[in-house]
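Issue: copy button drops trailing tokens. Both records pasted manually instead:
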Amino acid sequence: MRLVSVLVNRAVAWLWLPVFLLLTACGGLAGEPQIVATLPPAPPQRVSFPAAAPDLAQGARIYAENCTRCHGVGGQGDGPLVGTGEGQINPPPPDFTDPVTTADQTPLNWFNTITNGRLERLMPPWRDALSEEERWAVALYTWALHYQPDLIATGQQLWEEQNVELNLPSQQELVQLTDDALVTTTAERAGIADFAAGLDESGRRAVAAFLRTRAVNGVDVIGRPLEEVAQVATQQPAQTPQPVRPLTTPETTDAAPVLDSAVGTISGTVQNGTAGAAVPADMPITLRIFDLTTAEQNEVETRETTVSADGTYTFDSVNLQAGYAYDAFTIYQGRAFGNSTILEAVSETSLNLPITIYEVTSDPTVITITGLVTQIVAASGNIQVAQVYSFTNTSDRVFSTDSSFGENSAGETRYGSVSVAVPAGAQLRGFADSQERYVIADDGSSVTDTAPVLPGEGHILHLLYTMPYTGDLTIEQPVRFAVNGPVRLLVTPESVAITSSQLPSIGPQTLRSVTYQGYGSTLALSPGDVIRYQLRGLPATSTTGGGNILSGGAVVAIVLVAVGVMIIGVGLFIYLRGRRVAPATVAPTRDEQSLIDGLVRQIAELDDAHDKGEVDEDTYRKRRKRLKTRLAELMDRE
């Protein structure tokens, strides 16, 4: 499994709310097609560019609804959840009003952080919570917080004094430029490079503010109080987005053409993310193209090239087709590194897919368990357990051991990475994503992940197991890596209680309509330490509690509890066949699995919209029927 696929498999929807976050625990699917355990992933990791000029007013509304608790009303990183007390976030988020914060950044960096999160700084991914349009809107709104109207006016005056035509780069290029590079690039396009070179720091900032705000909508929100802007944005109907620019003159508003197909190029820069390491000369790059417009989702083309002396690669004369996926990758030190994108429409004749490779380390001290949540449902004769581990790699090397576990279905060697111990007496029932990704010890005592852990990124491992239970059970679970973060237990029904010196009660935790008894604390443990707790009490015979996590057709919602009483929600939609799940002998292909996962996610999102009254009953039933029918068709082919 190539690394880009691993990124897709482990991506999960995370949302933040103060106190509790109740994320996607949709019901109503019992009796529908049973499928092998699967986690609906977010869209594949890809380079994304604005499909229209981002709307700052829309961004302000989204920011007001979701971001002020950490980043503060004014964007200065002083929200109510920030501080040095118990359960608060420290260090604080960056100050968006300080130009230094964006000095070496690009709006694309900003967008990617919003999309993928920064778990090491408790910044969750918003990939599944916000659309691309919304993420670009809030990215450019927060970016513009270090501008002010007088700064923009000064920049406009400086530019207009040159008496030259304003010819901004395309949206794709704009979001990949720092403010400083934007000034230089635009001045060179206008033939006034000397003007840009002669500006002092304040002048460059002013011109950058003017140029940047010519490529967005809703500029009038800059400098206005957030409460006022958010209220107006909520009351007014959404604007029809302005078309994507390049601008040939300040007044140009013609949209870039959107095509079904075009012949273009796919290129990118390959860099080594490990300090002091280089990209090997003539490194081979593979491009695979998949047609996602058909049920078969066949691979239609494979091409090869090599990295040039300047670290770039290019594929010329590529058929860019709406509904196709483009996957560029390389194998380095036996591990695959890549980048991919799915074209929803063709508005550019070039795609940029940068690739970062890393040196490999097997040093376990670079890995920290930064969160662990265990959800327990007590049933007749057993407990059903879903666990989610969150790992962080603190080094600048990819973590992967030398232990080999054969090849995956793509013919690539599976190397071990992080592993977790399973409590004595547990019977593993499966995983929340690709079965092929995990290796179970012969005695069932541990699980090893074969997905490498990337530097500085969150890495999720989720597993399911059962244990015999007759009313009194002590569980001891050793940890194989250092723990530094929240550890939570959630148990239902309420007749079952937990006793633990490490994990005191934190009170009831209501997730949708199910109430769990919560236990937890922020722990600092060393490798080999043990997490211990005792369960006592029997469920009533008629109690369904949180539902049978492991039976066919059931749905489980697992939550990760962040600092204090904040909960990061992870929706795990688990459908098992009512049997022990070993690595599947017949399983969907990677692309079939992606489609299955997407359909399950769409059903969940539709159910949630219906529950909120956002979709009328007739539309809801028709859409849901179509989604269920397509899901059943896919499962019938297994």
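Record 2 (pasted manually too):
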Amino acid sequence: MEDTVNQKDKEKAEEEMIEQAFQELLNDYLASKHRKRVEIITKAFNFANQAHKGIKRRSGEAYIMHPIAVAKIVCDEIGLGSTSICAALLHDVVEDTDYTIEDIENIFGPKIAQIVDGLTKISGGIFGDRASAQAENFKKLLLTMSNDIRVILIKIADRLHNMRTLGSMLPNKQFKIAGETLYIYAPLANRLGLNKIKTELENLSFRYEHPEEYTEIEEKLVATAAERDKVFKEFTAPIREQLDKMGLKYRILARIKSIYSIWNKMQTKHVPFEEIYDLLAVRIIFEPRNIDEELNDCFNIYVSISKIYKPHPDRLRDWVSHPKANGYQALHVTLMGTNGQWIEVQIRSERMNDVAEQGFAAHWKYKEGGGSEDEGELDKWLRTIKEILDDPQPDAIDFLDTIKLNLFASEIFVFTPKGEIKTMPQNSTALDFAFSLHTDIGSHCIGAKVNHKLVPLSHKLQSGDQVEILTSKSQRVQPQWEVFATTARARAKIATILRKEQRTNQKEGEDKLNDFFQKEEVRPDENNVAKLCRLHNMKDREELLTAIGSKKIILGDIDKNAIREKAGTTWKKFLTFPFGSKENKVPLIEQTLPEKISTAKVLKLTEENIQKNYIMADCCHPIPGDDVLGYIDENDKVTIHKRQCPVAARLKSSYGNRILATEWDTHKGLSFLVNIYIKGIDCVGLLNEVTQVISRQLNVNIRKLTIETTDGIFEGNIQLYVHDVDDVKTICNNLKQIQNIKQVTRSEG
């Protein structure tokens, strides 16, 4: 009886908690500038609550709390309205219950149903046990994006909440989800201008993948906060005085570099935390006198603060006159503070700040009528993706990497001969520009004039270049063009044209080869084809057929003699010459895991099993103490990778159900080879000091040592045997004590 009473109390408390969470969502919505469509939001909540009744999340809380949390992110942090809030509340109903899209459409109308349908299509069990090839999901995700951008915005909100509650998942699931978040969702959020969300996704991913480094940087940030606060106050005091004189309404904020960004910079620049000098940036957010004066106000603020502090001549970034493709607008200027450090100041209006925080959703807030169609750079980007998706890629991972080229690229602005401005990704070449104008212009392009000077197709464009493309009807796409092109659009088009040409050439080559065999009354067997491949130095039949079809090889007397040499007498089955018909392998991701290895458990790496059972990845050379994970390959072998290794990033995103949570248990029993990179000022006896520290003081065995000196600066690589990461830290710290050594880091080799 008591159990029944307790159960009822629990259910009542849960209902109250759900009701309270929904009320908070409604209050947030009512505080926004959107039309007050409370009735339909309440209807969506009641429907979803009923559909998910009794279902719990892994954390033990009622499932409906997840859709409410996603709807709150959609409303508060992305700034969307009732249609998106309803879709967020309903986003798991079709996938997890018996309701269909038709049911949603009948009750809530076609628009909400269309968004829920888009979200259901791209779900595919990403966050469940039914892990599927991430690149394929990503394709679907982009396809739905082009119908309604709100689909991807809600999906990013869904991912953000899942990352916030990742602690209740199994460790190997945490790595998979954190990896794919860093690989796919953070760049997407960045591309859509959701800066705050991008930063949080990166930080959360990093926290789960490298908990110790995360805590270490967090503690150092806390320890140095008082000093930064002092610098901020001193630096901004004269700026506030100047802005007050101008009569502007403004606020000045300190922006601290995110933990993930700090770690990333430490990795790429090989510097310790203490040498990251751009931890602090200053943001000036003002209200323009009127909307027409917004741009002028930005530059007036810039001019007035440049009189106080000296600006860096090469670091003025004008995103006000030329917004980024994701809509971001601001004026960035770097000023020399009184403490001798450069401090970046970002100048934006309140409107620009909303766009920076909420991305494209903020555009709708400021648009007349608040429609969901936003023309401009985003639509161009979506059209490019649609074109790439229309042409099926042979490998989904290649597709993902191609798209990532564009996701991560920042923009340059170039002009046509008539003075029209075009936005291109950074590092774009003249060839990319030609394909961005039209496929025909790209495929017949022979060169370009940049600022009236003739340049080759591989010429990299700079912001402000004026580009004229030169074409010729006789020009055809060349294989080396794939190297010149950097944009996804150009690469996809070139690959398509080359594949089409290859197919045509192979077909013609097949016909010519069959005619040749028939005419010479020779058997068209594999042996004879192999003889021709050897004669012409071709690696396989496909390459031979392409060369014959494109007239690079003209079959003649030499070929006759090569075939008749030791010609076989047995007649083999008449062969046709198929091309590209490679056996369809079952994608690795679809195969089931070997029973003997369970992905739910944490794999212990001990002295006994490392040498027998596991392979240490050559790409990143993990050693005990590194944050690592295991990957089960198609031969059921487990390879150990560092978690931040680029290869591991691809594996986590694409083969998530083959990732194993892994930890070391070696107790300094084994030796591992590591590379230490050193750099400093050359002086007599330096090499002797280095070897003294390593061999005598630390008793470590050196395998290889190379030193190079240029203009008084030396660089060296030391290969040595260690037991674990602690040994590496000790060696690095001791080497840093040597007076003329300025940089010591562990390198990949």
